[in-house]
Amino acid sequence: MSDFRFNAGERTVSPWLVAMVASLGAWVFTGLAWTWLQPQLSLLFVAAVAVAAYYGGSLIGLAAVAVNLVLTYLFLYTHSFAFGHSGQQLWRGSLLLLVAAAVGRISDLGRKAEQHAQSLAADLNLVRTELASQKADFGWFHKASVRLSSSLELSALLREIVSVVAMLQDADAGVLLLRPFPASFEPADTPALDAENDKLELAAHTGFSTEQAERLGVLDPAFFSLRHRVVMHDADGNGPGVTPELREAVAELKFRALFSTPILTSEGQALGVVVSCFKEAHQPSEREMQAMELYARQAANAIENARSYGTSVSIMQQEQRRAAVLRALSEASVQINSALALDSLLQTITERAREIVGAHQAFTSLAPQGNWTQSINCVSLSPKYRDSGGRQPERSEMFVLACSLNKPLLVTAESQRKQPWWSVASTSGAVQPPSGWVAAPLITRDGRNLGLIQLSGKIDGEFKEEDQSILVQLAQMASVAVENVRLYREAQEQITERGRAQEALQRSKDSLHLAQQAAGIGVFEWDLQNGTITWSDEIAILHGMQPREFDGKYETWINTIYDEDREHVHKAVARAIASNTEYEVQYRVLHKEGTRWLEARGQSFSTAGTPVLMLGMAMDITTRKQSEEALRRSEKLAATGRLAAAIAHEVNNPLAAVTNVLFLLRTHDTLDDEARKYVATAELELSRVTHITRQTLGFYRDVTHPVETNAATILDELLCVYAKPITGNGITVTKKYDFEGTITAFHSEIRQVFSNLLLNAIEAVPHDGTGAVRLHVTRSRKNGDTEGIRIMITDNGPGISTENRERIFEPFFTTKGQKGTGLGLWVSQGIVNKHGGEIRARTFVDGAARTTCFGVFLPFEHLKRTYPTTPAEAAAA
Q1: 338: buried, middle or exposed (CB in 10 Å: 19+, 13-18, 0-12)?
Q2: What span, in angstroms and rounded, lies between the C-alpha atoms of 199 and 222?
Q3: Residue 788: strand pairing partners
Q4: Which helix (H) or strand (E) holds 105?
Q5: In degrees rounded to 5, what are phi and psi of residue 774?
């Protein structure tokens, strides 16, 4: 029935035929059965109307009402039936109309419902088809995503992307343009290629002929947007982002249509664009565009992952290379520092430098005392050069240039003509090295040039900055090793000289012992290395002690002297030790027989400028002093002046022995790197102690020159030295370096000043976890016109009283009892004054809280007007 009713032809013809047949059928059957149908003769005509309305709808049903009403009255007329009264006629017509309307309405509603159902079925089929297509697309995208995610090799990934894009759009060719790495890490709001230096580079392509591939440069990267798609569906048409220049460029490549999609990361950062080219006109659908954008985002993530992986691999390889170099440098350091002979040291340095850097030949030149005319040279060749005789001559011009500049130099085929000094070498006729040249000078800690290490003929490629850095490290090791060899030789000479001195001293001791026995004079021997004093029996008796009662300490001897005479005796002894001269002093001792006057004389002996021994004697001059009492009362003792230097707490250190032991310890093979750092720190501090000892000598004059010194660096080094008492006592150290520049100063002396002040602060603060020390370095002025730096060291200790504050810079004044010597601040003030600066101390009181601040001002240029600032000027001076 549905096929019949919804056929277009039957919808306009068949319902009328049904209506006519039903009406005629009602006439015929009513005529045949009218005897049974009375008095309802119109019943069949009503059925005919219902059938017509059912098959034809309301309109045909109304037509059937008219036809059947006429047939009803015609039947009544032909069969001589009465029409009935008007009410019956009205009922007959109303019944037909009611049936036609009801059945027609039901038919119309059924037809519409069936049409709607068929429409829904058709739509459902379309949705099923679309879902199946999307499922297939999602499956394809899933496989493509898996391929993208599993590909970490960048070039293969880029080829995969452009191939998939071309296949996805059924394009004839595809090209992938990317920003140079790491341009993808630029801010996400970067627009298209608006910056002058921004550009896209060809990453991969497919479907292009050789000629087309060569002409891909015709596609200017500025044609494409990094934020929006560009669609050119035909060479003669327009589209989003299409310009006449783009149409012309595409036509030159023999394509008609083009579609580009930006490659954006999930954060919106633009990596580049992917372009599809078509030989025929092509208008991509919205679905194709969305699919391309989705795949482009997946491609962006895959590209980032591949780049990150490549970067990680590169970093790992670099770290492996760096680790290998560090191992080689560590091994080289052990070999270099274990060499005690100069010739073996030079050969080790040269061979290890060539092997670590990877060069065909290496030269090491050493100039004794800076005299290059008597230089010692050593060469090392690779097996290739050694077997083929391919050694290149030394570049004398480059050699002189590196030594004069006193800094490392690197020459490559690309960079040599860009160097400012190349014109000098080229003018003198220097020939370009075939595979580069690199050199590093051997510079000591005080800036002296000992020699030069040169490398030429890089085995793999050309020399790089990394090679230069490695050579500089080797040069630093070599400089220290050369100095160590020199110190080792001097130590051996000192040991020999000390042996001769000890023999001479023993002979002198024997002579003095004979004199003691003959004249009754007490003799003493003072070992300045360990601080032990040896008395003869006579001298012990003179001091009111039994020979076995004296413990050999300097303090015990000083305590036997009258309080009024102790300082005088102490100064005389200290002056003799400092100036390496004799001393003669008279003093009183408390004897069981009363007060006795003694006269002592002594002589200090030194080895290589280091005091090692003092010999002396003492005699009783009480009778003579009694006769001279009146004269002595009328005279004043001559002022002894100020001490030339201070060595109270340093002079007793066994400097030569410690120096030798530290050198042997540092060159020991079993010592690890951390221990070597501590040994290096000990050597640095020992050199400072040696310098302090030399300052105390009367005949010594500091010949070293001032250098550029960084106060902040010295403070940081001292914090490392005193790290143990700082952390062990819970002291909080606060640093504020507003100025980290340099001044011209004597580095070791400034270090001594800061060490004294910092140690005083550490010892002064509470050791219960509340102690605090603050370091502040800033640029300042003195008297409004002298520029310099001001260093302030503040602590929260008990402070300095007013009466003590006036005396803290006096020699031998101390508030630490037996622990202090009273020389630290006095020496520090002398060093600061020597540098043209000033040192001050202040104590602030705020209730129970006290703060002590030591401020040191050091000018920038003071020493430059007094002392030479270069090794050459120092030598000339």
Answers
A1: middle
A2: 8
A3: 780, 859
A4: helix 86-150
A5: -125, 130
Report how far apart, in Å, the C-alpha atoms of 235 and of each of 247, 255, 259, 284 are.
Answer: 6, 8, 12, 15
Q: Tell me the average pLDDT across 200-204.
A: 82
338-343: Cβ within 8 A, 24+ apart: 338/667, 338/669, 339/481, 339/485, 340/485, 340/488, 340/667, 341/485, 342/366, 342/376, 342/482, 342/485, 343/378
Each residue's pLDDT tens digit, 636-661: 322 323 343 344 344 444 666 677 77
Helices and strands counted in the chain (H then E): 28, 22
Q: pTM higher than 0.70 for the full model?
A: no
What are the tokens at 458? 């890089």
* DSSP 8-state assignment for residue 142: H
664's CB contacts (< 8 A; 6+ apart) are none
Cβ(25)–Cβ(68) below 8 Å = no
CA distance 314 to 302: 18
In total, the chain counts a number of residues equal to 877
- 172-206 per-residue burial string, b: 16 or more CB within 10 A, e: under 16: bbbbbbbbeeebbeeeeebebbeeeebebeebbbb
Q: Which of 30-39, 55-64, 770-779 has the lowest mean pLDDT?
A: 30-39
Contact 809, 829 (CB under 8 A): yes
What is the structure's pLDDT at 795? 94
Residues facing residue 535 across a β-bridge:
524
- For 446-492, the pLDDT digits (tens) are 778 888 888 888 888 788 888 888 888 888 888 888 888 888 888 88
Can you state the angle between helices 465-519 and 286-338, rounded to 10 degrees?
30
> How far from 21 is each of 15, 41, 96, 104, CA to CA, in Å?
10, 18, 17, 17
Using CA atoms, how far apart are residues 177 and 262, in angstroms rounded to an integer?
10
Contact 357, 437 (CB under 8 A): no
Burial 596-635 (b: 16+ CB within 10 A, else e): bbbbbbbebbbbeebbbbbbbbbbbebeebeeeeeeeeee
CA distance linking residue 435 with residue 449, whole number of Å: 27
Residue 95 burial by Cβ neighbours in a 10 Å radius (0-12, 13-18, 19+) = middle
Helix (H, G, I), strand (E, B) or coil at 603: strand
Q: What confidence category does residue 736 fall into, taking pLDDT thresholds of 50, 70 and 90?
A: very high
C-alpha–C-alpha distance, residues 693 and 827, integer Å: 12
> Cis (ω within 30 of 0) for the bond into 39?
yes
Three-state secondary structure readout of 685-729 = HHHHHHHHHHHCCCCCCCCCCCEEECHHHHHHHHHHHCHHHHHHC
Q: Which two tokens stand for residue 777?
A: 């370095």
Q: Which of 706, 535, 685, 526 is nearest to 606 (CA)?
A: 526
Residue 527 dihedral angles phi and psi, to the nearest 5°? -80, 105
Question: Quick check: 841 and 832 in contact, CB under 8 A?
Answer: no
DSSP code, position 561: B
Tell how far CA 288 is from the center of its chain. Answer: 47
Percent of the chain with pLDDT over 70: 75
Per-residue pLDDT at 773: 94
pLDDT digits (tens, 9 = 90+) for 775-814: 999 998 887 778 899 999 999 998 888 888 888 888 767 7
Contact 482, 342 (CB under 8 A): yes
